[in-house]
Structure formats: C-alpha cells, structure tokens
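hey so u asked for the seq, here:
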Amino acid sequence: MREVTAYTWVPDFAQGFVKDLRVRWALEEAGLPYTERLIDHQQKLMPDHLARQPFAQVPVYRDDRAELFESGAIVLHIAGGSPALMPEDAAARARVMSWAFAALNSVEPSVANVMGTRLFHGEAPWAAGYLESARAMMDARLKQLSRWLKGRNYLEAERFTAADLLMASVLREIERDGGFDRFPDLAAYCERCVSRPAFKRALEAQLSVFAGAEVPAGF
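ran it, structure tokens below
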C-alpha cells in the first residue's frame, strides 16, 4: 500500500500549502489509493524520521517499489507509472521532465523569496527594500513562463501532466502576494489546474487532517 507521511497540524498560513499536497494530488490524478502516516513537529526530529527524511520535513512516500523524500521526486516517481500524468512518447516525457524541474528550480525559488519574506520577516526594517528587488526577480520569471504559455492551455500544449501539477503548486503561492493581479493569464492557467477534481480531493484530504487538530504547546 502507498503511504504518505504528513503533519498532524500546521499554522493557519500553511494549511493547504504543505507539500504533501503535491503527492496527494498526483496519487489522485493517477487513481491510486494511499494511506497517511501522520507525525507532529516533535516526531519529525526523531531518528526514525530523519532516517527517512534527512531534513526533518514532509512528505515522505513509500510504495512496494521505493521509498522517497522530496515532493518533486515523489511526483515524478508516481507519474512514471501513470499515463494520466506522463505521456508515453519519449520526446514528450523529456519535455515534461524539463518543465517539472523548471517549476522547482527556475520558478519556485523566486516565489519562495517573496513569500518567505512576507510571511516571516514582513515587519523587519529591511523587508520593504528587499521585497521590491525580490518581486522584480519573481516577475521576470513569471513573464518568461507567461510567454511560453501563450496559446497553450498547459505546459505540454493541451495535455495536463505532472509538470503542470508542480507548476500550479508553485503558482498558488503568489496569490497571497497579489501576483495574479499582474499576470491574469497565469491566474487562468493555475485555475485550470486546481479546478481539477483530483486537486480538490487532495486539498480536502490535507485540510481534513488539520480540521480537528489541537494547537501544540509552543505555537
């Protein structure tokens, strides 16, 4: 049975954005059932978890073929066995792989710079100046992505793939910063992705874990 390790609770701002959501979404798209292994923020520091995830994070995933950490690697592992997420044609598969890495390496770092500063350092005296520069860098990446998507519904033309799953997971973050106001075409692209029934099921599954959870001491 496939198993996804996720948190029992996270602060409100992180609910719906913890990266096990990407794995849940991929499994839902592929039509694959899974179980949850829920841990708290003390358990993530325990040796048994660090043996599976050296950076004390989630998700961790395992099935009868492998055990993996890092959401992008897990999504591509699932996609490799799912025609719903990965085309059969070798050239198309290569393009999907390229765009999957682009989502995580070319786009996500610039988005994370903006969102991390706003969420964790927004009141710092240096934040305003840094955010101006960070938003400019993010917008440059988003303009390049927008140019590629012109005339396309998805990264691989008319077909939703694992690359779109990862890219939309990254783009969801910019809504908190008003980035979609500057890029309505990317807003439409992201909405096409997250309006899929599989995403809605994945999001509901993550949020349902947090719905009845007690706030841990110290938070």
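The first helix runs from residue 20 to 30. The first strand starts at residue 2 and ends at 7.
lmk if thats what u needed
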